[in-house]
UniProtKB/TrEMBL annotation, chain A:
It comes from the Bacteria. Pfam families: Archease. Transmembrane segments: none annotated. Belongs to the archease family. Residues 15-153 form the Archease domain. InterPro entries: Archease, Archease_dom, Archease_dom_sf. This is Archease. Keywords: Calcium, Metal-binding, tRNA processing. It comes from Billgrantia campisalis.
TrEMBL record, chain B:
It is an enzyme of class 6 (ligase). Belongs to the RtcB family. It holds the Pfam family RtcB. This is tRNA-splicing ligase RtcB. It comes from Billgrantia campisalis. Monomer. Binds 2 manganese ions per subunit. Keywords: GTP-binding, Ligase, Manganese, Metal-binding, Nucleotide-binding, RNA repair. It catalyses: a 3'-end 3'-phospho-ribonucleotide-RNA + a 5'-end dephospho-ribonucleoside-RNA + GTP = a ribonucleotidyl-ribonucleotide-RNA + GMP + diphosphate. The gene is rtcB. Its EC number is 6.5.1.-. Gene3D superfamilies: tRNA-splicing ligase RtcB. InterPro entries: RtcB, RtcB-like_sf. PANTHER family: RNA-SPLICING LIGASE RTCB HOMOLOG. Its cofactor is Mn(2+).
Length: 153, 476
């Protein structure tokens, strides 16, 4: 799991892109479940561009799912959808996750980013959708969280 | 993949013997070197597909197969509805009906050499390539509905294309059974500004020259001669297909559970064909096929505009248009009996042999053109469906070279600028918005396409007709 071409990290949190034959495996980790999800979404931006993205605009999104792993896929697909229809890239995320009394989880988040600039961001490829392949949300013995799955590009 | 895990049937046929929950064997078509180059995950995913209800004969794997999600890319599997057969969004892929079309230009390599740079620049200016590029086409609600119903037939009616193209597109350019009512508002929203765009990743428009002819008779029937120049476009159903794939992968998980289907892995999410989710997916997926057929027809029209401007009087006639991420209802003979099957081809091309009733008259005698995209440096192939392909893998063949290494490995090894300079020295002009994208798609990141098509020929899936080499590549 050290074989990554791109990564970023800050204060015990970080992300990486791991090899997969045709697609890409996004991986995020952090002290909390929320931080791991935020980092996994940052990895999505890393799929598209190495360039800096500025937090010029903010928008709110939400999604829910029966378990944490499916919630990760829903979350990444929500971000992919907003990237696609708004033509934006995102550089920051504030995620809140609550477990629902009826079972399952609800996620609400604020996304920060800017419109894609084809010259400045020189996008390498686009994320089509997150999949259930190599899907894992887990807590380490030390208490930190990691979240990963294959994204079709 | 270690070949010792497989039973070798002949030089290019290998079996994963059914064990555990597998209902049928896995059957791989490849030579030993290609088998060794495949990820172990291809074995695992093939064995998992073989456990799904209603699967008929085998879980088939093409010579270019690699690790996908759910089904391997390069996977073919047919399901019988009367045996509880399933349909799977992961068995089709997110880029529904992604495919390849090739058009004759009537020009030669010498003609192109006289105007190669202006032609490359004009194509780059006209063909929306890469993330964020737009064609200027924006569909109203009414137009979207008509496009999802009509496919390339709609595009021609709108003035993007020629009616004579339609018989050289699978399904006559319009997939029957599309139900736009099954396409969500979000999927439509994702497509609103994406008609007539190439997309990114491994999508491209190439100007290609016929480099070598393997079969004179079929090449003549296809209109292929040495040094003749073609335009080839590789793209799919854009955001609409991606969103449909995403949504139904999610919806099929509870549908499988409700139907009592035990999935070896969640990535195999599927629904019985005769279930409400299965039927909704069919209606939506067929709409996405129409979206892809319309998209390639529009891009073909853009290419025609450019060629008419650079080479006045030139016309582009469609050789053929194939899709390689689909599920289609087809009749195949199994154990001597004709069966109506739902054939999933994920990263696999339909390859009807000579005499097939679904082929247009002009091609019926020789068989279906099977267009195989290679990498931007190495070349592409035109194959023809073989009669033996019917019993080998429901008339299916490979779809491309297949990746030999991941994007990240390619990025570590190559730099985009160096790749472009190297190809220019070899007479190939590459135009792309992203140097990183060029590095990720570097020719060396792909398997040897010659080896893949040779294995397909030896396995009786399809026969080689011509090899094409690129002159210009507009990279998505």
């Amino acid at each position: 799991m050290t074989d990554c071409h791109a990564k970023g990290s800050v204060q015990g949190a970080g992300w990486s892109l791991l090899p997969h034959d045709a697609d890409v495996l996004v991986n995020g980790w952090g002290a909390t479940l929320e931080a791991a999800f935020e980092q996994a979404a940052l990895a999505l931006t890393g799929v598209v561009t190495d360039a800096l993205v500025a937090p010029r605009q903010a928008l709110s999104v939400s999604c829910s799912a029966p378990d944490r792993e499916l919630l990760l896929v829903e979350w990444l697909n929500t971000v992919i959808y907003e990237m696609a229809v708004r033509g934006m890239l995102f550089c920051g995320f504030q995620v809140a996750i609550e477990s629902l009394p009826v079972g399952g989880y609800h996620l609400s988040a604020t996304l920060f980013g800017e419109p894609l600039d084809r010259v400045r961001h020189a996008p390498a490829c686009e994320a089509k959708g997150a999949t259930y392949t190599a899907l894992q949300v887990s807590r380490s013995a030390a208490g930190g969280w990691s979240a990963s799955c294959v994204v079709d590009v | 993949m270690d070949p010792s895990r497989l039973t070798r049937v002949d030089e290019t046929t290998w079996r994963i013997e059914p064990t555990g929950l597998m209902r049928v064997p896995g059957i791989l078509y490849a030579d030993e070197a290609l088998i060794r180059g495949m990820d172990d995950k291809v074995y695992e995913q093939t064995a998992n597909v073989a456990t799904l209800p209603g699967i008929v004969q085998g879980a088939f794997v093409m010579p270019d197969a690699h690790w996908g999600y759910g089904f391997p890319i390069g996977g073919v599997a047919a399901f019988a509805p009367e045996e509880g057969g399933v349909i799977s969004a992961g068995g089709v892929g997110f880029d529904i009906s992604c495919g390849v079309r090739s058009m004759h230009t009537g020009l030669t390599v010498a003609d192109i050499r006289k105007a190669q740079v202006p032609l490359a620049d004009a194509l780059l200016a006209r063909i929306p390539a890469g993330l964020g590029s737009q064609s200027g086409i924006s569909l109203s609600r009414h137009d979207m509905e008509a496009m999802l119903h009509g496919g390339a037939v709609w595009a021609v009616k709108e003035g993007w294309g020629e009616s004579k193209d339609l018989e050289r597109i699978e399904e006559g350019g319009r997939m029957a059974g599309a139900d736009p009512g099954c396409v969500s508002a979000r999927a439509r929203q994702r497509q609103r500004r994406e008609m007539g765009t190439l997309g990114s990743g491994n999508h491209y428009l190439e100007v290609q020259a016929v480099e070598e002819i393997f079969d004179d008779r079929v090449a003549t029937a296809f209109g292929l001669a040495p040094d003749a120049v073609l335009v080839t476009i590789h793209c799919g159903s854009r955001g609409l297909g991606h969103q449909i794939g995403t949504e139904f992968l999610r919806d099929m998980l509870p549908a499988a559970s409700a139907a009592g289907i035990r999935l070896p892995d969640r990535e195999l999410a599927c629904a019985p064909i005769d279930s409400p989710v299965g039927q909704r997916y069919l209606g939506a997926m067929r709409s996405a096929i129409n979206c892809a057929l319309a998209n390639r027809e529009i891009l073909g029209h853009f290419a025609r505009e450019v060629f008419a401007a650079v080479f006045p009087g030139s016309t582009l006639d469609l050789l053929f248009d194939v899709s390689h991420n689909t599920c289609k209802v087809e009749t195949h003979v199994v154990d001597g009996q004709p069966r109506r099957l739902f054939v999933h081809r994920k990263g696999a091309t339909r390859a009807f042999g000579p005499g097939h009733a679904d082929l247009p008259e002009a091609l019926r005698r020789v068989g279906q053109p099977v267009l195989i995209g290679g990498s931007m440096g190495t070349g592409s192939h035109v194959l023809v469906g073989a009669g033996s392909g019917e019993e080998r893998a429901f008339s299916s063949a490979c779809h491309g070279a297949g990746r030999a290494m991941s994007r990240h490995a390619a990025l570590r090894r190559w730099q985009g600028r160096a790749v472009i300079d190297d190809l220019r020295r070899r007479g190939i002009l590459v135009r792309s918005a992203s140097l990183r994208g060029v590095a990720e798609e570097a020719p060396g990141a792909y398997k040897d396409v010659d080896q893949v098509v040779l294995a397909a020929e030896r396995a009786g899936l399809a026969r080689r007709v011509a090899r094409l080499r690129p002159l210009i590549c507009i990279k998505g």
